[in-house]
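Our preliminary data section would be incomplete without showing what the modeling component actually yields. Below, a chain of 450 amino acids is followed by its predicted structure, encoded as tokens that our downstream tools consume directly.
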Amino acid sequence: MKTSLLRKVRRAIERYGLFSPGDRVLVAVSGGVDSVVLLEVLWLLAREYDLKLWVAHYDHRLRRGSLEDALFVYRRVREKGLPFIYGVGPVREYARREGLSLEMAGRELRYRFFERLRRNLDLQKIALAHQADDLAEEVLLRFLRGAGRRGLAGIPVKREGYIVRPLLLVTREEIRDFALARGLDWREDETNRDVRFLRNRVRHLLIPFLERHFHSRVRENLRRTALILAEEEELIEDLTREAYQRARLREKEIALSVPVLRDLPVALRRRVFWKALGEAGVPLMRVRRSQLEALEGLLSGKARGPVSLPGGFVARRAPGRIRILSRALPRVEPFRLVIESSGEYELPGGWRVEVRSGGDCPPEAVRIRGSFPLVLRNRRPGDRIYRPGVGHQKLKKFLWELGLDPEERDAWPLVEMEGRIVAIPGCYRHPGFEPLEGEEFLCLIFRKLA
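Predicted structure:
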């Protein structure tokens, strides 16, 4: 059985290109039999594939025995002479704060920990201990919850080019037999038998029922179907990456071109949205289908937005693009400030302005013919500006064409004199209020602080 398991792992490594010579690999070890066997297998194969191993254990602090689990892993890793990294997180508090289940919260924090180690230690791969029975259970779970083709592909053997699962072609029984043959010991997690959890009900109740009453090889059929879909997913992922590169605009935040998105088939466009959310840092495990549909609404114009996304992110429609931002902009209430003398003034929305009467005026400042008083305010319904060659234009349309979000438009300060909008910092000056040589003028220096 030992030889059979190693043969299957080699086959997975070579078939899916899980490792390259010289890879620095983080092995995630919980202390359960699957992860203990994963560590043993990669330790045995490290010289053959020229791998350098690090071991990480994440303590969720959800069970009284969690510290003993960490110490157990530490001792096994020390015996092999490998570097060990211990992580711990307030899973229960995080779940309460974010409104997540304990399972979802633990998974988010755990993956975040592994990803941080990958970046900080310059590691090429993260090896996880999912096995063939996990794959079958995951497919059924996703089917019950409602999933598309991507979801029914289950747990991929390789994801994002660096998350790898070398045991995914190996069954739970084969793993246990290997552990016993090698004389390995492991920690048992009693919660794995608690049928209050949906995953455990699938494992201990649903699959055995299907095997008894429908087909004795249900697990094998589910695994085979998932692997076929996963292999086809590789092709679709290649198409998605190409489409994403075409749609992605070269801006500081993640922004997608509306014309490019409209030209994509709906199924591919949904994948591009998904990839963009991941690139922006949105926790993908929490993204719902309704939120992807809301992004479609932004694109078609049926929804005005913004679309709220997990993790405090929002998606907004702007001229010619859809932007994914890391936080919602604070709404600025209407304001109106009458300026009657020189000085510095703070405005809502993170703006500050220095007002001078004539004198030295920097090139980027706003120069306005006339004298005090003047008014600084934000926009109001019905506001218009005068543009030579265009005539009077709605301010709302002008700011939209500049690519400002609604909240940015609400906060942007306007300069008013004699009942007319005479300047907008950074983008507009009324031609009738440009000072001529020798005329009295006011100098306004605007700074955006936030």
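Residues 218-247 form the longest helix (30 residues). Residues 336-448 form one domain. Preliminary results of this kind motivate Aim 1 of the renewal.
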